[in-house]
């Protein structure tokens, strides 16, 4: 009886060790998968963290956009805006609507001479150029990329047009336009009506 008892104890102990080892393997696999998921999220989500509008889709109503963009302020029926630091520079982000449907997003950097020199202007443009090229592929059109005062690059997908521009050293503006291709005519009409109304 004593031998049987000792044998049972050993078997129970072995079963426990086997189960414990299996749990360790399962936990190790789980942590590995979680780590990989976090890693890929970091890679693929970096752009989304930098630009809030990446969580949006064309045609969203203003209320829906406001639920996803922190600090969004409605200016009028045509536009709403917010601001945030992007690549160490304060940027104004405008969300433009036609019949309460999101059709354009514009990021505007105002890079004044006292705040930023020409080298920094070039650096920011190059960062954005590389960032958008990584996301959308090579630009479908470029203009004066070697010029420090006026240059642009453009991308096009099935739904979206993107234009990155420096509009002269004197104006100090660097802009990124994101436009819905399907809503192009609607946005043009809404913009003209907005201008005509003097809003």
Order of helices and strands: HHEEEEHEEEEH
Structural class: alpha+beta
Could you list the spans in which at least 5 consecutive residues all have pLDDT below 50? 25-50
Radius of gyration: 27 Å
Number of helices: 4
Total tally of structural domains: 2
Residue-averaged pLDDT: 75
Number of strands: 8
Determine the fraction of residues in helical runs and give it as a percent range.
40-55%
Strand content: 25-35%
Characterize the quaternary organization of these chains: single chain
Q: Ends: how far apart?
A: 96 Å
State the major sheet: 8 strands, antiparallel
Shape: globular
Please give the order of strands in the largest beta sheet. Answer: 1-2-3-4-8-7-6-5
What would you say this structure looks like, in words?
This protein folds into two domains: 1-50; 55-196, no CATH class. By secondary structure, the chain is an alpha+beta fold. It contains four helices and eight strands; from the N terminus they run ααββββαββββα.
How would you summarize the topology of this molecule?
Layout: H1 2-50, H2 62-68, E1 73-74, E2 79-86, E3 89-98, E4 101-110, H3 118-136, E5 141-143, E6 150-156, E7 160-167, E8 173-180, H4 184-196
Antiparallel strand pairs: 1-2, 2-3, 3-4, 4-8, 5-6, 6-7, 7-8
């Amino acid at each position: 009886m004593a031998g049987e008892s000792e044998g049972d104890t050993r078997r129970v102990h072995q079963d426990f060790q086997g189960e414990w080892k299996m749990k360790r393997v399962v936990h190790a696999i789980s942590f590995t998968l979680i780590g990989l998921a976090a890693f890929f999220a970091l890679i693929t989500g970096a752009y989304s963290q930098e630009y809030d509008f990446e969580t949006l889709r064309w045609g969203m109503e203003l209320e829906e956009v406001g639920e996803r963009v922190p600090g969004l302020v409605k200016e009028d029926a045509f536009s709403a805006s917010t601001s945030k630091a992007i690549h160490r520079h304060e940027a104004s982000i405008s969300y433009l609507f036609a019949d309460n449907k999101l059709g354009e997003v514009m990021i505007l950097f105002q890079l004044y001479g006292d705040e930023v020199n020409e080298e920094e202007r070039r650096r920011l443009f190059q960062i954005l150029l590389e960032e958008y090229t990584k996301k959308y592929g090579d630009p479908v059109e470029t203009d004066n990329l070697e010029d420090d005062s006026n240059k642009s690059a453009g991308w096009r997908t099935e739904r979206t047009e993107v234009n990155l521009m420096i509009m002269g050293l004197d104006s100090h503006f660097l802009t990124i336009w994101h436009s819905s291709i399907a809503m192009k005519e609607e946005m043009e009409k809404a913009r003209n009506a907005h201008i005509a109304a003097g809003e």
